[in-house]
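Field reference: sequence -> structure
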Amino acid sequence: MTETLASIWLAIVEEFSDIADAAEATRIVLRLLMAILLGAAIGYERETQGKAAGLRTHMLVSLGAAIFVLVPLQSGMPEADVSRVLQGIVAGIGFLGAGAIIKLSGHEEVKGLTTAASVWVAAGIGIAAGMGREATAIVSTLAALFILAVVKRLEKHIDPPPRRLGLPESPDRRETSQTKE
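Structure field:
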């Protein structure tokens, strides 16, 4: 019985031996936490806007992307081979983003493009964090937040003429143009 328990314990120790020391454990925890927190920053912005993909989605996408690159790198996979993993992440996130995009029937309007793009960016940030490029991940998150918050405010001041875009004129615009004439 003692030999069996010793054998079981040895198997458990071997299964958890992928983290060699405290420094490696710290690196792994830091990279994963960074991915989670930066994904949360983008997700929080989306959540406050009432979007379908919010806080948890962005956190999980960023964490998942970090895991997908961290594990191969930690296991000794050459960075050149990790590029295939990156291709899979980018393609897979494309499918997830496609689920956030809807075309409203009867309208010339597509919704969810920004949310889909933010999910894609969250994956990229997770990749950067997972590869140990935390500064790049932070700068990328700040850029994404700038686009989502500040550029959105600037967009409100841009009113493209509907005819130039091939869209029908709204009743509000017709009233405004008729009163000017």
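Note: Residues 31 and 129 are 5 Å apart (CA to CA).
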